[in-house]
Write a structure and sequence with these properties.
Blueprint: H1 10-22, H2 26-38, H3 45-57, H4 61-73, H5 80-92, H6 96-108, H7 115-127, H8 131-140, H9 150-162, H10 166-178, H11 185-197, H12 201-213, H13 220-232, H14 236-244, H15 255-267, H16 271-283, H17 290-302, H18 306-318, H19 325-336, H20 342-351
Helix pairs in contact: 1-2, 1-3, 2-3, 3-4, 3-5, 4-5, 5-6, 5-7, 6-7, 7-8, 7-9, 8-9, 9-10, 9-11, 10-11, 11-12, 11-13, 12-13, 13-14, 13-15, 15-16, 15-17, 16-17, 17-18, 17-19
Length: 352
């Protein structure tokens, strides 16, 4: 463009900054920002917001705050979007005091906090296990003229579930529907997980059927939650049936699902099926990860199949994975009992 005598405008520079941010090239994005000024092409609030948001999402909140200071120095007033990005960045770092400070700053400057601002604050409080403070913000939203959306409800429901306050989570789940906010797949998955983690498996299965009946197609996360809960309840056959039915429902298991299945089968002493599934997942295009290897290796070690475990440990090492703390503890325990294969002992020495 420049070679042809065409000067880049603010839209051109903003697009280039966006592209640089998308691939994490912060130095290039910053360079472009300063180049704009040197070319008398002044960035607007939209340009700055792109950089602030990208920096915050990458955990670089200090740098994002520096960009905001540059905005102010140049007479460009940060808006609600700018401050929401800062809130999000502090939330990701667990800095809830700073999140609240930014929230209060929005209000003090006379900006209208929006549903996104409130949802960020609620989500941050929930992740910090400050559920009552999150709920207080939620109850204040109508007074501020803000209608909670699905993200707001989902964050608070998740907080209640993780705090073991299942009745309040279920009440909120019903309330959101009464208010015309339809739960999405993530909301359902949060409730499913909450029910399963609070020994309400039958309710969770009923909710899964409700999803299917409402034509809200459960995803692999929903089915994985149910499969894991069935295994924990000792219902191995039922868990296997749900897994076997996934293909008919057009749902593809991912590595997390396979890991749940392999762990459940190993815990049930069904090692032949566990290893069969372990090999099958590779054939179906789902690569095993370090967790998969550690899970099946522990299954064989716990069932005194040290020879098979040794073979898998060698395979795991060849693929660049390593034993986790629990696997290493089992091997050391076998070592103390003088039950370790020489090959396994050599591997253990190399791993320390």
């Amino acid at each position: 463009m420049v070679g042809r005598g065409i000067a880049p405008n603010v839209v051109t520079y903003t697009s280039l900054i966006q592209a640089a941010c998308n691939i994490g090239h912060w130095n290039e994005a910053t360079r472009l920002l300063f180049e704009m000024a040197s070319q008398c092409t002044f960035p607007d609030v939209f340009t700055f917001n792109i950089l602030v948001d990208a920096l915050c999402k990458d955990g670089m909140v200090v740098q994002a705050n520096s960009v905001v200071q540059i905005m102010i120095q140049r007479g460009i007033e940060p808006d609600t979007i700018t401050y929401n990005s800062l809130m999000d960045g502090h939330c990701l770092r667990g800095e809830m005091d700073k999140v609240k400070q930014v929230f209060d700053l929005i209000v003090s400057k006379g900006f209208s906090v929006d549903v996104h601002s409130c949802s960020l604050l609620i989500n941050g409080y929930c992740k910090g296990k400050k559920i009552d403070q999150a709920y207080k913000i939620f109850k204040e939203m109508p007074r501020m003229g803000i209608v909670p959306n699905t993200i707001t409800y989902s964050s608070l429901i998740d907080g209640f579930c993780k705090a073991g306050r299942l009745q309040e989570a279920e009440k909120l789940f019903s309330e959101m529907q009464d208010c015309g906010q339809l739960p999405d797949i993530q909301t359902y998955n949060i409730i499913l997980d909450g029910l399963c983690n609070n020994q309400q498996l039958s309710k969770a299965i009923e909710l899964l059927r409700e999803m299917e009946g409402n034509k809200l197609k459960p995803d692999i996360v929903a089915y994985s939650i149910i499969i894991e809960a069935l295994f924990k309840a000792g219902k191995i056959e039922s868990a296997t049936d749900v897994f076997s039915g996934l293909s008919l429902k057009g749902v593809q298991p991912d590595v997390w699902t396979y890991n749940i299945m392999i762990k459940g089968l190993c815990n049930g002493g069904i090692l032949v099926e566990a290893e069969k599934l372990f090999r099958e997942m590779e054939q179906k295009g789902c690569s095993a990860d370090g967790c998969t290897y550690n899970t099946i290796i522990r299954g064989f070690l716990n069932n005194n199949e040290t020879s098979r475990a040794t073979s898998l440990i060698e395979e795991m090492s060849e693929r660049g994975f390593s034993g986790d703390a629990i696997t290493m503890e089992l091997i050391v325990d076998l070592l103390l009992k003088d039950k370790v294969d020489p090959v396994l002992l050599a591997w253990l020495k190399n791993s320390v």
